[in-house]
Write a structure and sequence with these properties.
The chain is mainly beta. It has one domain. Helices cover 9% and strands 38% of the residues. Strands 1-2-3-4-5 form a five-stranded antiparallel β-sheet, with helices on one face. Strand 3 and strand 4 form a beta hairpin. The longest helix has 9 residues.
Length: 103
């Protein structure tokens, strides 16, 4: 069995990348649109690093639905945003995610 795998998802939004990218690059803004934020209203959140964009880090610790982990934006441009995503609960898992806002 391979020790790596890839999952891909795609969503089309009626907005240009320049309008969408700031909502992704500002990790504090995720509370306005991310369904994961609603899994645990009492979730403990910590923000560090840059305020937004490359170097911004968000860590969370929540209930059994939200789990625990962190993500850091490793590169940020309007057309492509890459993140390092690490889960520590319920299962330790590291992952690199790319977001490609396209016109």
């Amino acid at each position: 069995m391979a020790d790596t795998f890839r999952i891909a998802r795609s969503v089309t939004m009626a907005a240009p990348p320049e309008r969408i990218a700031p909502q992704i690059q500002d990790l504090r803004a995720w509370k306005n649109w991310s369904p994961y934020e609603k899994l645990d209203p009492q979730m403990k959140k910590t923000f560090s690093g840059a305020e937004r964009g490359e170097g911004a880090t968000y860590a969370w610790e929540g209930n059994s639905k939200a789990g625990a982990g962190s993500m850091t934006i490793v590169s940020a441009m309007p057309q492509k945003i890459s993140m390092a995503l690490h889960f520590t609960k319920p299962h330790a898992l590291g992952k690199h995610r790319r977001v490609h806002p396209r016109a």
